[in-house]
Amino acid sequence: MPGLWDQHGKGRATGGALDDVFGVAHSPNLRASDVFQSRLWSEVDQDANFYYSNFATFLTNGNDSIMDPSGFYKAVRNMPVMNVNDYGEGRAVLMNMSPQWYNAYRNMSWDTAAEKRSVFMDFVHDAGLDRWVEIEGAGAAEHGYEITYWRQDGRTIVMVVLNPEDLVSSSVVGLREGVTPITLKFDTPVLDVRDERAGTSLGDGMRFDFDWAVNEAVVLSFSGDPVLPGDANFDGLVGLADLMALADNYGRLSGVSWRHGDFTDDGAAGLADLTVLADNYGRGSRHNLPVPEPACICLLLAGAGLLTRRRNRFSMSKSAERSADIA
Ligand SMILES: [Ca+2]
C-alpha cells in the first residue's frame, strides 16, 4: 500500500501503522544515525555528492550507507530491504526502495519527473508488463502517484495514492495538500464503475474524472476484469460479433467508439483496430466461440472481403484500402 505507510513510524508511539501487515518493526525512537549518516531528512548528503557519476559513489561518499546482500542500499539500517510476510489470507511484501530514488537521479540528472520514473518503468516494460490504468497527462506529477488494485467478490478495486511527502517546496516535512483534477485512463473499457468514496455509479467507459484531494486516496471499483482488447460488445469473448462491429464501421475516421470497433482509442476504425482484434481473436471462453480457432484467419479475411464490398458504396480510408490489398 504505497503512500499509506508512515514510513518511519515517527508519528506513532507503537511504530508504523502497517508494521504488523508487513511483519517488520519501525522504531518510534529512530534517530538520524539510524538512517545512513547524520542527515535524516535527505538520507544522504546530496550537496556533497551530486556530481558523482554513479549511485554507488553517491551513496557511499561522505556517507556510510550499507548494501543489502541483494545489492540494494539500505536507508534504515535496522530494517530489511525486502520482507515477505504471510498475513491473513494473503502475503504482504515490503520493498524498502527509498535509496533507489537517488539512483534515478544519478541516471536521469535534471530531466523531468516523468522521465525519472522511466528508470523504473523501462525495466517493468522490458519484463513484458504494461500498465492497464494510468493518470492521463499527469506530467511532472507522474512520478509521485501509485495505483494498486485487488479483487474482491467479483469486482476489481483500484486505489490511487500520491507519495505524500511535499517534494515540491524546499521542505520535505508534512503532507502535500490541495485538489488536483485528474483523469484515470484505462487501456480497455471497464464496466459498472463505482466511485467507492462518493458511493456513486460512474457507468462504463475508459476515462473517469476525479477531483483528487492528494492527501487522500481515490478509490473506485468495477465489475470483473477490464474488457478484453477487441471485445467490442463486452460479452467477454473476442469473436465474430466483434469483427462484424468493426467491419460495419471500418474506414470511419472520426466519431467511432469502442463498441464500433475503435480499439486503439483514436476515434477512427481501421487497420490498427483490425490488428488488435486479430491478435486477440478467440480469447475468452473458447468453448462458446461460434467457430474453432483455426478458422480465425479465414474469418478475418472474410471480414476484409466485406470491407472490399463496402468500398464500392463508401469512400474508404487509405488504411482500409491497404487492409483490402493485404487480404
Ligand atoms: Ca465480443
Summary, kept brief:
The protein is built from 9 helices and 8 strands.
Draw up the topology in text.
Elements: H1 19-22, H2 46-49, H3 55-60, E1 82-87, E2 90-95, H4 100-108, H5 113-126, E3 133-135, E4 145-152, E5 155-162, E6 179-195, E7 200-213, E8 218-223, H6 240-249, H7 271-280, H8 296-311, H9 318-326
Antiparallel strand pairs: 1-2, 3-6, 4-5, 5-8, 6-7, 6-8
The protein binds calcium ion.
Residues 231-233, 235, 237-239, 241-242 line the site of calcium ion (CA).
Structural features, described:
The protein is an alpha+beta fold. It has 3 domains: 19-130, no CATH class; 135-223, Sandwich (Immunoglobulin-like), CATH 2.60.40; 240-326, no CATH class. The chain is 25% helix and 21% strand. The chain contains 9 helices and 8 strands. It has helices at residues 19-22, 46-49, 55-60, 100-108, 113-126, 240-249, 271-280, 296-311, 318-326, and strands at residues 82-87, 90-95, 133-135, 145-152, 155-162, 179-195, 200-213, 218-223. The strands form 2 sheets. Strands 3, 4, 5, 6, 7 and 8 form a 6-stranded antiparallel beta sheet that branches. Strands 1-2 form a two-stranded antiparallel sheet. Helix 6 packs parallel to helix 8. The longest helix is centred in the last third of the chain and has 16 residues, at 296-311. The chain is elongated, with a radius of gyration of 25 Å. The model is unreliable at 1-6, 166-172, 287-299 and 301-327 (pLDDT under 50). Calcium ion binds at residues 231-233, 235, 237-239, 241-242. The site of calcium ion has 9 residues, from helix 6.
